[in-house]
């Protein structure tokens, strides 16, 4: 774990709220000089604290309005079987997040698709055709009351 000082924390807090800030805007908000701020952001990126900067999109504005939270239980949990399943879902763009969990199911997936027919197609392709999947339990979001990407520092 990398040791973060107060300036690092202020920089990360600002970037988590808006990564589109210019270096000058960021420096002004964290009360540092622009060269210092630029060096710090580069170091945080080089050290892997900042893994990437992205735009968060509104799926409902883009025709992708169904969020499914899916629990997957495998028949066999040998390491190679777990990795095989992770590779299968890694190649599917509708799977936004994949967590290996314990206890309970082996995996929890967050899936974003256009509608129920799109979900059924994906479920058939990813789950029904796989011989090592014992159980699939799907939950469908009716209201997203909170969505946050910020990590508390």
From TrEMBL:
GO terms for molecular function: sequence-specific DNA binding. Residues 4-65 form the HTH asnC-type domain. Gene3D superfamilies: 3.30.70.920, Winged helix-like DNA-binding domain superfamily/Winged helix DNA-binding domain. Keywords: DNA-binding, Transcription, Transcription regulation. The keyword Transcription regulation applies. GO terms for cellular component: cytosol. PROSITE patterns: HTH_ASNC_2. One of its GO terms (biological process) is response to amino acid. It comes from the Bacteria. This is Lrp/AsnC family transcriptional regulator.
């Amino acid at each position: 774990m990398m040791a973060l000082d107060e300036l690092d924390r202020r920089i990360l807090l600002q970037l988590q709220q808006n990564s589109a800030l210019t270096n000058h805007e960021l420096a002004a908000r964290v009360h540092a000089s622009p060269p210092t701020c630029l060096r710090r952001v580069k170091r945080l990126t080089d050290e892997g604290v900042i893994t990437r900067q992205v735009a968060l999109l509104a799926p409902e504005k883009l025709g992708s309005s169904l969020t499914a939270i899916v629990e997957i239980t495998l028949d066999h949990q040998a390491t190679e079987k777990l990795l095989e399943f992770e590779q299968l879902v890694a190649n599917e763009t509708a799977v936004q997040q994949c967590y290996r969990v314990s206890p309970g199911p082996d995996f929890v997936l967050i899936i974003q698709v256009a509608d129920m027919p799109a979900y059924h197609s994906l479920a058939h392709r990813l789950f029904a055709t796989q011989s090592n999947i014992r159980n699939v339990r799907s939950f469908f979001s009716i209201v997203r009351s909170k969505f946050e990407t910020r990590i508390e520092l």
